[in-house]
Amino acid sequence: MRNAFFKGHGLGNDYLVVDPAELDFKLTPARVRRLCDRHTGIGADGVLALTPTRRADFGLRIWNPDGSGAEKSGNGLRIFARYLHATRRTRRTSFRVDTVGGVVGIELALDARGVASSATVAMGRASFRPADLPCSLDVPELVDQPIRVGSRSLRFTGVSVGNPHCVVFLQKGRDVTRRDLVELGPALETHRIFPRFTNVQLVVPRTRHRLAIWIWERGAGETLASGSSACAAACAAVRRGVARSPIEVVMPGGSLQVEVSDAFDVTLSGAVEEVARGQLAESWVRGLDRRR
Length: 292
What we know:
The protein is α+β, with helices and mostly antiparallel strands. It folds into two domains: 4-122 and 273-290, Roll (Diaminopimelate Epimerase, Chain A, domain 1); 130-263, Diaminopimelate Epimerase, Chain A, domain 1 (Roll). It has helices at 29-36, 74-86, 178-189, 227-240, 282-286; strands at 4-10, 13-18, 47-51, 58-63, 69-70, 94-99, 102-110, 116-125, 145-149, 152-160, 164-169, 199-207, 210-217, 221-223, 247-251, 254-260, 265-271, 273-279. Helix content is 18%, strand content 40%.
C-alpha cells in the first residue's frame, strides 16, 4: 500500500509510524508538521520512520511534531516495536533497534490473541555528565544544581538517557498545576544552559517506589506520558536518594514501570496500543507542499 501509516499510542502519547520506502514524498520538517497537525493532518505527537541500519535488526528515526528530531523515545520505541510485529516485519518478540540515541533491546509481551500489548525496552545507561545532555554548566555532574527561571529559584538534576532531560523535584505532598507546567516547561526547555534544548519533568515523590511527574517535551510541549521522561525522573530520584528501584512513574496518561540498576542502566516497561492503520489520500499528498 502506497502512503500507508500506522498509528499507536503509549498512555496517550501517540505516534505515526511510516516506512519511507512506501511514501511518495520525502519526510521533511515541514511535512512532518503537517502530518502531525490534529486539524488538517492525521494528528500525532511525532512520526517514527523505519530506516536502514547495520548496527541492529531495525533502524528508527524519530521526528517531533514541530519537525525537529529526537534521539530516543521510550513510548515511541514501544509503539515502533508493536508496529514491526503487527505488520509482520518480524515475528520475533525480541530484537534490537538502532536510534540516534543508541541501540536498544526490546522484548514484546503477547496477549492471548497473539497481540503485542506491552513491551519492555532496555533504554541504556543514564548519565548526569553535562557534556552528555549537553549543558553548559561547569560541574562534574548535574545533580541538584541551581537554576533560575524568571523570578523563581529552582534546583534541577540533568539526565541523559540518550536524549536530554531537566528534572525538577517539587515539594512532597503537593500536586503540580497546569499553570506550573506552562510557566516552567517552556522556560526550562529553552534555557540558555541547554544549547540543544531539553525535555522537562516536574516531579513529586509519593513513596520510595512511586513518583508522580508532569512532562513538558522538547519540540512537543505538554505531554500526557513519555517513556524517556519516566526513565529520567526515576534515575534522578535514585541518584538523589528519594526513591529506590523498581519505581512506578505516574503521569497524566497512566503509569510506567522503571528499573534502575546500581550502574544506572535503565529498563522501561508498559502497555502499548494500536489505534489505526490507513492510507493518506492522493489529493492530500498532492497538496502537501501547498499547505500552510
